[in-house]
Amino acid sequence: MKVGFIGTGSMGTILIESFLRSGALEPGEIMASNRTFAKAERLAALYPGLEATRSNASIAEECDLILLCIKPLEFKSVLDEIGPRLVAKQTLISITSPVLVHVLESQTPCKVAKIIPSITNQVLSGVSLCVFGTRIHEGDRRRLEQLFSFISKPVEIREQYTRVSSDISSCGPAFLAFFLQKFAEAAAEETGLSRETAMQLVTEMALGTGLLLTSGNMSPETLQQRVSVPGGITAEGLKLLESELDHVFSKLIQVTHAKYEEDLQRLAEKFSSV
Length: 274
Description:
Blueprint: E1 3-6, H1 10-22, E2 30-33, H2 37-46, E3 51-52, H3 56-62, E4 65-68, H4 75-82, E5 91-94, H5 101-107, E6 111-116, E7 127-132, H6 138-149, E8 153-156, H7 162-191, H8 195-213, H9 220-227, H10 233-244, H11 248-270
Parallel strand pairs: 1-2, 1-4, 2-3, 4-5, 5-6, 7-8
Antiparallel strand pairs: 6-7
Helix pairs in contact: 7-8
């Protein structure tokens, strides 16, 4: 199987390196292109056998599986370039949430899926959100899920829930990192504890908490109950968080959805002929 990556920016590079590190793919199975060709060349130099190309068309003509790791507003021009070269047996994957599957299907003759990764895939963890198009058969689905299972847990979702699911799996690491950063900074500022020590404590705490919630089979509610004693320190802290964070997460989802709707509108204008 030949796998092509159009776009080797942050997420494109994470996917390529994660597939290679996990053993899912060998360098010789990968072609990569990028608007700034030097970025694709760098990957080819790091991983002998990986082919860097200036031509998106070459990827469309030579690869069985093609991942579009580009910005939403770049999709129209890239699809105009590669669409005529695609055939029914190929599979095209978008990793971008605002680009709708039916739009991709209307622009190409091939099989289409949307698979949204996360930065957590860099450490072969987290999930990949999967939306499969109407031309994807069961065998195609299994092949894609097997590939992405090397770097994540593939989770199939309905496209209407793409945004909220991405808020959790893709944006969530940044939101959680922000919370941890602020927690550590406040601990250092309020007590004199060094920032380095505070950061070590919060990151190790986050790792352990994640393990409790997964392999430890604890729910968030159970974990809170196990740590919190009525009238104790943790209970007082939880009471404050409940009060101060009330509605924050609802507002967060509202903000991300508003931006998503804006992106959908801008894309609709790009694909106005669809």
